[in-house]
């Protein structure tokens, strides 16, 4: 026959183990989500940089055309 103390210890150890497993699972899930958010931010940053670079390139092309036109008129 089991004593009430041994049942209590078994119950507490099972509850503690379940709590630890749940905590680790939740922590891993939140870590994965944070890493994914970082990737999304990096992609957005690259897209913004690409748009900015295209804008600067177009601006530079416009200035080059303007300078060539001024040189032809001189």
TrEMBL record:
It is found in: Mitochondrion. Residues 1-19 form the signal peptide. It comes from Galleria mellonella (Greater wax moth). This is Protein PET117 homolog, mitochondrial. GO terms for cellular component: mitochondrion. One of its GO terms (biological process) is mitochondrial respiratory chain complex IV assembly. InterPro entries: Pet117. It holds the Pfam family PET117. Belongs to the PET117 family. Keywords: Mitochondrion, Signal, Transit peptide. Its main location: mitochondrion.
